[in-house]
Design a protein that fits this description.
about 170 residues, alpha+beta
């Protein structure tokens, strides 16, 4: 790890570059990676997202795909604030070539719940943006959402950024 930086394994809404950059402008894509012996799910109730949010559960033999981001140490407190309803955890993830990287990630505890369609869309869009395995993207799409149809300001902000990036490509 480069001095003054840390690695962060994102598997939920922070898969999407535009979401992560809202509060973490130093984030740089490092690689796609796999967290073994965990599975992905949604839990809790987020007031921001009007439904469940992403988490990981210990499950031998399963895996979670995600993105490793490199951030400045100065942004670690900001990321901790952004993920304040989660518990930080150090994990080893497997990158291409079986390279193991030590990363910070976040785990939320709580009952299983359904995400809003907007939150689920941010997660799926991030998985597509980073070209996670198609089978894994399909598994993310297969989660049932809660049908929330109201306005979610952070979602509108993120998707506006995504549309602007797509125009500039």
């Amino acid at each position: 790890m480069t001095s003054g930086t840390f690695l962060y394994f994102a598997y939920g809404s922070n898969l999407l570059r535009e979401r992560l950059l809202i509060h973490n402008p130093s984030a740089v894509f490092e690689c796609v990676a796999r967290l073994d012996d965990y599975c992905f799910g949604f839990c809790g109730e987020s007031r921001l997202w009007h439904g469940g949010v992403a988490t990981i559960f210990k499950r031998p033999g399963r895996h979670v795909w995600g993105v490793v981001w490199r951030l400045n140490m100065a942004d670690r407190d900001i990321l901790d604030w952004q993920e304040s309803t989660y518990n930080p955890k150090e994990v080893g993830v497997v990158a291409i070539g079986d390279r193991v990287l030590r990363c910070r990630t976040y785990v939320r505890r709580g009952h299983s719940s359904k995400p809003s369609p907007q939150y689920k869309n941010v997660v799926v869009t991030g998985a597509e943006q980073n070209r996670l395995p198609e089978e894994y993207i399909q598994s993310l799409r297969s989660f049932t959402d809660n049908g929330f149809q109201g306005d979610i300001p952070v979602y509108s902000q993120i998707m506006k950024e995504v549309r602007q990036q797509n125009v500039c490509v």
